[in-house]
Design goal:
Length: 451
């Protein structure tokens, strides 16, 4: 490896949001060597959140979601080329076109893909969609614009709920099927998910909870589905919103610690190998990473958040071109937002890392509130509904490990704020939708005793 970290060859695999921001940050940090970005899609890096919002509503087209570049990172873009492996010893990335790509340092930002419907024949029916790529967005937007009789959405996580919201805004009838007890319960816990269920039904969504879809029907084209309760839904479009799969299969023989929950790395974004030893030349950022966070019990977090991809990419880029004592940790507090059924939901921290909650401001009845989550007596998260201005305050409480329930002044409720209720975080295995924050390691209430 060259002595000068600002020089040499850096390869980024994943022409994603994280990949682009890392490429820009490397140049901003003074990296002068050769930079190659490999991506399996033929497109330049583009933005995915609009695909379930503005694109479906016809307010934007899928081909206008390309991410703006803050600066030209002067990279060689190898788009439409799939990486098939990494040889850690020879320090090269293997590509499907057969040409090995040598590196001095490697950054992996391969992200996630939509979890497909498990039956390939049913998944291939015309009118069955997942929503992840810009082609998916364009195809689904076209079908919704043609005003189908009914859309079936399988899974009521954030993506499924946003799609259902877009359908209702377009005046299209929609049925949502969710295996868990309510929409968004995997991300927000029991209390707020009840509000989400009420909002969906108030907006005319045919919401079915506690059921699974057992079969999709059609003769070439999708015509309907059977549910586990014996009922049948007739529809002409089906959107499968069953969460995401991390793109790690290409690393199966690499010797890196890559598995279904992503690639494990340290707080400096350096990937672990399969023996738990940190590498010094392979880094990881974005949705495909799993990293420890001291504010959440050093649990390994897997986050599918836009902001996390940007912030982690910048930390990874900094650490790739600076020596050890100047390297910095990725410690930012997870945040995300969603707009659906006229509500603006914003979250800071990790709501699933909680045992109790308290409604600190507003009320469920008013549909405007700030809910604070705590774990073992300290604040770990907050979620606001149409009250985003309060979030900065709660972020500060999380960063300072403030006591839970929050002290007076942290809430505007006349009743005692120490009326806490269990947060009712479900076991993820009972949900249709994957959690947007996966806590790996112990769950707060399930300690493993090794005898």
């Amino acid at each position: 490896m060259p002595g000068d970290l600002k020089d040499g060859r850096i390869v980024i695999v994943g022409a994603s949001l994280a990949g682009l921001r890392a490429a820009e940050a490397l140049r901003e940090e003074g990296f002068t060597g050769s930079l190659t970005v490999v991506g399996d899609e033929p497109h330049a890096p583009y933005d995915r959140p609009p695909l379930s919002k503005q694109v479906l509503l016809g307010q934007a087209t899928a081909d206008t979601t390309e991410l703006p570049m803050r600066m030209d990172p002067d990279a060689e873009w190898r788009l439409g080329v799939r990486a098939t492996g990494v040889d850690l010893l020879a320090k090269r990335v293997l590509l499907e076109d057969g040409e090995p790509l040598p590196y001095d340092r490697l950054l992996i930002t391969t992200g996630t893909r939509a979890r497909p419907w498990p039956d390939p024949d049913e998944a291939a029916l015309e009118g069955v969609f997942t929503l992840r790529t810009c082609e998916d967005g364009a195809g689904l937007a076209e079908r919704l614009a043609a005003k189908p009789e009914r859309v079936l959405v399988i899974g009521a996580g954030f993506t499924g709920s946003e799609i259902a919201s877009a359908c209702r805004e377009l005046g299209v009838e929609v049925t949502v099927a969710e295996r868990g007890p309510a929409p968004l319960v995997g991300a927000l816990g029991g209390t707020l998910s009840k509000l989400a269920a009420v909002m969906q039904r108030n907006h005319g969504v045919d919401l079915r909870t506690g059921v699974t879809v057992t079969a999709l029907h059609g003769n070439g084209s999708f015509t309907g589905a059977e549910l586990s309760d014996g009922s049948r839904v007739d529809a002409d479009v089906c959107v499968v919103a069953l969460g995401a799969i991390r793109n790690v299969e290409w690393l199966a023989d690499s010797g890196l610690a890559a598995g279904p929950r992503g690639i494990a790395c340290d707080a400096g974004c350096r990937a672990f190998n399969m023996y738990g030893i940190v590498t010094d030349d392979v880094f990881v950022a974005g949705d495909v990473s799993r990293f420890p966070h001291p504010l959440f019990g050093y649990q390994m977090l897997s986050l599918e958040h836009w902001g996390n991809a940007v912030e982690q990419a910048e930390v990874a880029a900094h650490n790739m071109v600076n020596p050890g004592p100047l390297q910095r940790p990725h410690l930012s507090i997870p945040t995300f937002w969603s707009t659906q059924f006229g509500l603006n939901i914003k979250s800071v921290g990790v709501p699933t890392f909680s045992d109790h909650i308290v409604i600190a401001q507003g009320s469920l009845e008013a549909r405007r509130l700030a809910m604070v989550y705590g774990y073992q007596g300290r604040v770990t998260a907050a979620v606001t509904v149409d009250m985003a201005k309060a979030l900065d305050y709660y972020r500060h409480l999380i960063e300072t490990a403030a006591p839970f329930p929050p002290p007076p002044g942290a809430q505007d409720r006349p009743i005692a704020a120490d009326i806490t209720i269990p947060s009712e975080v479900p076991d993820p295995s009972v949900l249709s939708h994957g959690p947007t924050v996966a806590l790996t390691g112990h769950l707060p209430d399930r300690r493993l005793t090794v005898v």
